[in-house]
Amino acid sequence: MGARGPRSGAAVLSPRALNRAALERQLLLRRADLLVSEAVERVLGLNAQDPNLPYLALWSRLEGFAIEHLTAAIENRSLVRSTMMRATQHVMSVRDFRLVRPVLAPLLRRVQRNAFGRRTTGIDLDALVAEAGELLADERVLTRPELGRLLAEGRQGADPLALGWSVQYLRPLVHPAPSGTWNVRGATPFACAGWTGIRPQATAEDVRQMVRRYLAAFGPASVSDARAWSGVGGLREVFDQLRPELRVHADESGRELFDLPDAPAPQEDLPAPVRLLPEFDAPLLAYADRTRVMTDEVRRQVCVGAGVAATVLVDGTVAATWTVSRKGAVATLTVHPLRHLPPAARDEIETESARLLAFIHPDAEERRIHLLRSA
Question: Does residue 218 contact residue 44 with C-beta atoms inside 8 Å?
């Protein structure tokens, strides 16, 4: 669907104004003094496809962040890890999980059908999901392979892998600690999410509230942007329902943008510090039009296939990618510039990189920063 043109009188926002708004709401203009659970709710969840990603994301956003702060929030169930936006793993507050997961149910059913439909042909999926709930009753925890094997026992010729993944998409589940905590990988554990108070189906008001939450974390944004973030279709009608309560802007191409009436709007000339973001960080994925954070040329280098590289923001936009390696007692962080970096920016990148490398590998006897030549 094409973008609807702005109505007469809509304020036109420059790419820099949109950039500063995104940085402000994603806690990237300054490190915030917030509890971990508050910060995760403020930014509307963090990608957790690898367990270390939300830790790295919070390190760049919070003052005095330590690994044990997020681990404690996951262990005490202030935060939950589950399959969420775009059918990928995220860490979210219980309140946001309870709101958003039912809205995503149609998307996740489509994902199951596209990925495992043929491999579950002839299987009653409603019965499968119900049996999975029985197997996970009384707060029992099973890994995906364990659950898949148990479900396959009563279904001759069934594919245990397909059954386990199907349940992950078709039933709201959480993945309890220690899974998803720092450096803890392995088979994904499943647990029922009933304790969160989640409802079986989303209401129309739930969808509207999800849009409000999206705008609070990422606005000003278009209908297409919200669809790209969530994977949920049919949002044009929802935005039109909310229009009387929203502020309407336009970008320089005339695309209609929406925002909450009381949302912060930082000045365009506000300085933006260097930030090192982990792979799949939200500002790089939360928009259909990502030019507020990177040019199309940079995007082609950062977003390759299903991957999104770890990036360096300079003056608020993507200027480089970074990687970390470890050989014995030596840890190395390498920065790969994607555009020219002036001396002051290179100095700031080296300082921030050294701090991040110490966070990731505090036990390394030697830590090296390799800032390659500018592109």
Answer: yes
